[in-house]
Specification:
The chain has 7 helices and 7 strands; from the N terminus they run βαββαβαβαβαααβ. The protein is α/β, with parallel strands linked by helices. A 7-stranded parallel beta sheet has the order 3-2-1-4-5-6-7, with helices on both faces. Strand 1 (10-14), helix 1 (19-30) and strand 2 (34-39) form a beta-alpha-beta unit. The chain folds into 2 domains: 10-174 and 210-227, Rossmann fold (3-Layer(aba) Sandwich), CATH 3.40.50.720; 180-208, no CATH class.
Length: 245
């Protein structure tokens, strides 16, 4: 991708303090965007930073208002924030499932409610980070996988609803990206090194993804270069979705 496709634009990145979100902040800035960061922690690398818990609609709205006042309305949003609790279908009570949906599904809706009214005046791009687990049965991540499947349906519906106003909505669906969240899942295993090696074997390209891999796809989907793409779910999986191992 040529540099500068986001020149003069303002982008919001959620979950911006670490992992994929942090890499997206750096990549968008490198391509010319001014970047607003939303996270539980302060993000020093962003042009403006605000803190909010996605479970709290009022806090999300206030934080986004603060960021708009600092940088102006958003041309693009890359929504990376989420949680990934472990456990099978019957391993947890209602509270964990409700909390997972509150963060991973309603959190995206709370962000969109806050940014779309301004976007309607100019168009824009919204990128939601889903997961390969939205497509495959995942016994160890039941609530997470279900929430990501729901998120993809939200994206498809929003894409249709917002299209007449020039607002595009797409999803990225990563497989195993080597982030702190993934590393924590390996650490919970009896043999973390073996767990990591087994995970690598599930990807035909022979390695885990990197946050930079994800940031490149996020940049493309956020930028005008993907201007005739909406309602899509784009795999970022090293071939894992071709033949699930």
């Amino acid at each position: 991708m040529s540099e500068g496709s986001m020149q003069g634009m303002v982008a919001l990145v959620t979950g911006a303090a670490s992992g994929i979100g942090s890499a997206v902040v750096s990549r968008l800035k490198g391509d010319g965007a001014k970047v607003a960061a939303l996270d539980l922690a302060v993000v020093e690398d962003a042009d403006a930073s605000a803190q909010a818990d996605l479970r709290d609609a009022n806090a999300v709205g206030a934080a986004i208002d603060q960021l708009v006042k600092a940088l102006g309305p958003f041309d693009a949003v890359v929504h990376c924030a989420g949680i990934c609790p472990s456990g099978g279908t019957l391993d947890h009570d209602d509270a964990l499932w409700i909390d997972t949906y509150s963060v991973n599904v309603l959190g995206a809706l709370r962000v969109m409610r806050a940014v779309v009214p301004d976007m309607r005046l100019r168009g824009g791009s919204i990128v939601l980070v889903s997961s390969i687990n939205a497509r495959f049965a995942t016994p160890t991540l039941a609530a997470y996988a279900a929430s990501k499947a729901a998120l993809e349906e939200v994206a498809r519906t929003a894409a249709l609803e917002f299209a007449p106003e020039g607002i595009r909505v797409n999803c990225m669906a990563p497989a195993s990206v080597d982030t702190p969240m993934l590393q924590a899942s390996f650490a919970r295993a009896d043999d973390p090194e073996h767990a990591r090696a087994r995970n690598v074997e599930r990807h035909p390209l022979g390695r885990l993804g990197t946050s930079q891999d994800a940031a490149e796809l996020a940049l493309f989907l956020a930028s005008p270069r993907s201007g005739w793409i909406t309602g899509g779910v784009f795999p970022l999986d090293g071939g894992a979705g071709v033949t699930r191992r």
